[in-house]
Amino acid sequence: MSQIQSFYYPQKRQIETRKFTIVCFIALFLIGINSVLKAQNSDAPKPLSSVYFLQNCFVVKQPGMILPAQNVIIKDGFISDVGPILKAPFNAQIIKADSMYVYAGFIDGYSSAGIPKPEARGERGERPKVQDPGNPPNDIAGITPQIQASDVYKSSDKSVNDLRGAGFGISNVSPRGLMLPGQTGLFLLGDAENDKMKLKSGTGQTFQLETNRGVYPSTSIAVMAKFRDLYKNASIAGIHEEKYKLNPTGLARPDYSKELMSLYPVTTKKIPVFFVAPKTKDVHKALSMKDELGFDMVLTEVKQGWHYIDRIKNSNIPVLLSLELPEEEKAEAKKEGDKSEKKDSMLTKEVKKPEKKEVNPEQDLFDKKKDASIKEYLSQAGVFEKQGIKFGFSCLNVKPADIRKNLRRLIENGLSEDFALAALTTHPAQMLGISQMAGTIEKGKIANLVITDKPYFSEKAAIKYVFVDGKKYDYTEITKKPDSKPSEAGKHVGVWSYTVETPGSTQKGKITIKKTDGEYKVVVIDDANPNREDTASDVSMDGNSLTFNITINLGQSVRVDFDLKFEDKSYNGSVLVGQMGSFPIKGDYEGDPKI
Amino acid sequence: MNRYRFLLFSFLPLMVHGQNVLIKNGTVLTVTQGTRENTDVLVTNGKIARIDKNIATPQGVNVIDATGLYVMPGIIDCHSHIALDVVNEATSPVTAEVNVGDALDPLDVSIYRALAGGVTATHAMHGSANAIGGQCETLKLRYGTVNPDDLRMQGAPRTIKFALGENPIRVHGEGNKISPNSRMGVEQVFRNAFSEAQLYMKDWDDYKKGITKSSPAYNLRNETIADIIKGNILIHCHSYRADEILMLMRVLKDFGVKKITFQHVNEGFKVAPELAAFGATASVFADWWAYKFEVYYSTAYNAAILTKNGVVTSINSDSEELIRHLYHEAAKTQKYGNLTDDQALALITINPAKQLGIDKMVGSLEVGKDADIAIFKGHPLSVYAVPQKTLVDGQVRFDIMKDPDDMRVDINPAEKYASFYESNVNSEEDGCLRGISETLLQEGNSNYLRFKYSQNQDH
Q1: What are the distances in angstroms from CA B148 to CA B78, B151, B160, B425?
Q2: Chain B contact for A516, CB < 8 A?
Q3: Is-cis flag, bond preceding A63, omega within 30?
Q4: Which residue in the set A220, A233, A327 is minimally distant from B103, CB to CB?
Q5: Is A146 in CB contact (< 8 Å) with chain B?
Q6: In a domain, A516, yes or no
Q7: Are residues B150 and B62 in the same domain?
Q8: Distance between CA atoms of residues B70 and A494, nearest Å
Q9: Beta-carbon separation of B439 and A127 below 8 A
Q10: What pLDDT is recorded for position A359?
Q11: What CATH number does the domain containing A580 carry?
């Protein structure tokens, strides 16, 4: 830690001798050479220089402070200078940022970016094979607090790329898993090797109400009981270990359980518990557990926490609000009663045939209540702001592409722009203890920057560049495309066959992919039931990969997730059927979609 | 300071619940102190302050006109699974450490439906998958709150679920190929668990007295069972057969445990004197039987026989449907067993209160007790009885005149359907074995259908 600080704060050493400065300079130079050598091995063209000069831009130094006509010099990973009258260094790449806006790189308070998703468990999502389901090994029970995020972090994971593209430079990363998946750590969201991107490890311990199927603990009540048990035992074991160190005579040898030992920092309040608590009852559980056991806590991925706002405020509990928001039905979609009813009728066969819009007071009342409910979710951030709760955001479940849109929705519902920016930068920096390195645009801080063509929160703003750790990521090409051709033909449009292999059967059918008004539409028709069309939701085309899901009725509604990788005239991929498991899917191009 | 603040916050909403109200001129069925015609009940701060004729209306007190109506204590359901997100932690034959109180669901619309049947308190129980299941929670049906803590009945003793017979044998013996795989095995599970807890207590006693130097490991499961042995937790045991009921009483006697309520207890009528002698109580169905092998030998006279043998008996629902007409269930004991009105009403009021250890606070209309009150049109034991208003702590939580179609407290923003029925058309069935079908399904267990069937019977 001290190493990191002195490394990142060359200005602190200004009073020291010039000799030292020269040594530093040489050291930095060598590091520069080193990275150039590394870069030669990769496919990407090597950067001309690691010095950048952002010319004539608006600098949003910190929330609420916009400075016009500024220049920013980035050198070797730091912001080396900011000001109105600066000369570009001779070796700098000059970025003409006229009228562009520069923000401090965003900080994600909590997610699992960079942690590869585990393979789908078992063919039918079977429960793990254990001798006694009541007493499974710790890793199967989901008790792995000893895992460090840095043990499993991969900077090359697509999720890192996506989050960086949304403007994030730092993420507090948690290992994936069940009730105690491991310790979180801070990573720079650059694409250099994993260890190079590590900023700080052991920022907290994740706790969540997630369980494995059919083995203890399999329910939230057992997870809570198990946590109480582990917590008390960690306290006891920690004290015993201390006693043993002082005088082992006559004392039982400590167990040195790696699980309990990695909980000592929690029981001694050296690190907080990141308690994943999306809904109101989860928040209640988190607050109750904290009051009962007394650990430090960060309420994480909160979607519905407003019922407990007084308690959160009075106990000064740090909060990370989820950036995933409930979807609103578009006004037009609602009017087209036929369509939505048709979609519904696939889920429950009994639902009446679509008819001309009829008066349905029950539906109307429900729609009103539902709209009010959605409004509450969208207003939460604004309500927390009014209470002066300095929350950050967590990106655990939000799709990175939705982040800016969702922030705008929060702002439309009462959150101020300055507070939104603070929740993306200064608040999480304080919460995570990195205010000295990140969160604002100041000389000496890590060169994590977001550069947009218009103010970030304005309607048509687009991210042009993101800097992480002084490295430039260019989005000027990507952001141009949709502007120039809003109704382009779309990729992989057409009718495709599909074949899904499940144990004991093979299912075939057709997938139709269309693109209208800039949006992909996917319809799935199974050969076994050719009269039924399943319209897909959450359609996302990213390069050659397409993901979407449909809901089918297997006695109960089951969500089926498709993940397809296209290659010219064929594709491969997988389908995840509810909790039954993941199966391979493949298919070929068959022709144009019927219009 | 932190702790103090927490207490302040958790009690604050409860204080808000305490209401003042005057119920005028009803037929007051006190259950314990007779029936009083044309009588008023005055409620102050959520407690019954006076029961008398012609009480003058104090200033600022709402009046409910009960002329021609029946006023009775709120119904108490001694066996319920409503208002719970989790019912079974079915992975181990002993899970004393888990507590359904950690998974209360104040948003469950079943709470409102129970209120519409005059119910004001339920015993929210763990399921019957395990020989020693989890701890249960006694709830007051304060529907409308989102805070689970508001449902808890302050001052109610701790309770725990035990289970005998087919359920634990099927889930663990047949399902997981571990003990218990027979009724004998179930007995051994209890004996082992109690013995282990005794050793655990001794380990800690030795450490605390300084006899041993190293601290034993903490074990929440053993802590809980030790609390049962110490008499701090009341046992409520899922049971059917007489031989097993006698077995469990023998086990408890060996370990010095005195407080037990047998649930379901279909063959209780065969061992009524033995139950009375032990001081055990019984919570039964009015007339449910034959839904699985061990409940073929049953009778609708069960409640009456138990009552007349001096066993404190209650009638429970174990169902989110039956809970809405427990007064009908109680009335059946007048057809089958000729119980008096007070005896029949006691089955759903003061007797379940005794079984839950809350009879000092609720279960009858007496001065000083909580104003948990149900108001009926028609005598509650008549088939024409219709609940009109249900009050918890003096606050009206159900009023038949203000009963909108949609009473959901929280609408999921992702909810697709307007009606509760549509959104639940394929949802999992309720009951004591809730949460288990999934496990069994993937086991490919040949007994699956049998399970499925028994599950649909809810117990």
Answers
A1: 19, 6, 19, 26
A2: no
A3: no
A4: A220
A5: no
A6: yes
A7: no
A8: 71
A9: yes
A10: 76
A11: 2.40.128.120
Work out the pLDDT band at A13, boundaries 50, 70, 90.
very low
Look at B413 and A326 and tell me if their CB atoms are within 8 Å.
yes
Note whether residue A357 is domain-resident: no
Mean predicted lDDT score pLDDT of chain A = 85
Token code pair at residue A370: 């539902």
CATH label of the domain that carries residue B346: 3.20.20.140
Pair A149, A184: CB distance under 8 Å = yes
Q: Which residues of B touch A214 (CB under 8 A)?
A: 91, 438-439, 442
Question: Would you say residue B355 lies in a domain?
Answer: yes
Residue from B5, B91, B406, B443 to probe the interface with A (highest A Cβ count within 10 Å)? B91
Q: For residues A343 and B133, what is the distance between their CA atoms, to the nearest angstrom? A: 42
State how far the Cα of A171 lies from the Cα of A200, in Å rounded to an integer. Answer: 11
CA dihedral over B450, A220, B87, B183, signed as positive or negative: positive
- Interatomic CA distance for residues A138 and A136, integer angstroms: 6
Share of chain A above pLDDT 90, in %: 60
Tell me whether A307 touches chain B (CB under 8 Å): yes
Residue B311 Cα, gap to closest chain A Cα (Å): 33
Nearest CA in chain B to A235: B218
- The nearest CA of chain A is from the CA of B13 a distance in Å of 12
B284 and B376 share one domain: no
pLDDT per position as a tens digit, B199-233: 999 999 999 999 998 999 999 999 999 999 999 99
Residues B157 and B235 in one domain: yes
* Structure tokens given for A49: 């220089």
A516: containing domain: 494-591
pLDDT tens for B162-209 read 999 999 999 999 988 999 999 999 999 999 999 999 999 999 999 999
Q: Same structural domain for residues B218 and B123?
A: yes
Residue A400's CB: how many other CB atoms inside 10 A? 20
ipTM (interface predicted TM): 0.91
B1 touches chain A (CB under 8 A): no
In a domain, B417, yes or no: no
**Around B190, how many Cα atoms within 13 Å sit in the side-chain half-sphere?**
27
Same domain, B347 and B372: no
- Tally of CB atoms within 10 A around A1: 8
At which residue do the structure tokens 């109101």 appear?
A280
Q: How far is B212 from chain A (nearest CA, A)?
A: 9
Question: Could you give the CA distance from residue B333 to residue A567 in angstroms, rounded to a whole number?
Answer: 74
Least CA distance to A134: which residue of chain B?
B92
pLDDT at residue A107 is higher than 70: yes
Using DSSP's 3-state secondary structure scheme, residue B85 falls into coil
Q: Which residue has the tokens 């200078």?
A: A81
A413 touches chain B (CB under 8 A): no
Which residues touch A460 (CB under 8 Å, ≥6 apart)? A454
* A256: in domain: no
Nearest CA in chain A to B207: A251
Cβ(A31)–Cβ(A24) below 8 Å: no
Q: Provide the number of structural domains found in chain A.
A: 1
Q: How far apart are CA A254 and CA A261, in angstroms?
A: 11
Cα atoms in the Cβ-side hemisphere of radius 13 Å centred on B113: 18
Q: Residues B140, B25: one domain?
A: no
Contacts of A243 (CB under 8 A, 6+ apart): A251
Q: List the single residue in A215, A373, A557 with the smallest CB-CB distance to B413.
A: A373
Select from A146, A199, A204 the least CA-distant residue to A431. A204
In the block, tokens 């001779």 appear at A90
Number of structural domains chain B divides into: 2
Q: Residue B450 and residue B452: Cα distance in Å, rounded?
A: 5
Task: Locate all alpha helices (DSSP H) within A398-496, ordered by sequence.
Answer: 403-412, 417-424, 426-431, 476-484
Q: Which helix (H) or strand (E) holds B391?
A: strand B386-392
Domain containing B85 equals 75-360+435-447
Q: Report the amino acid identity of residue A112.
A: S
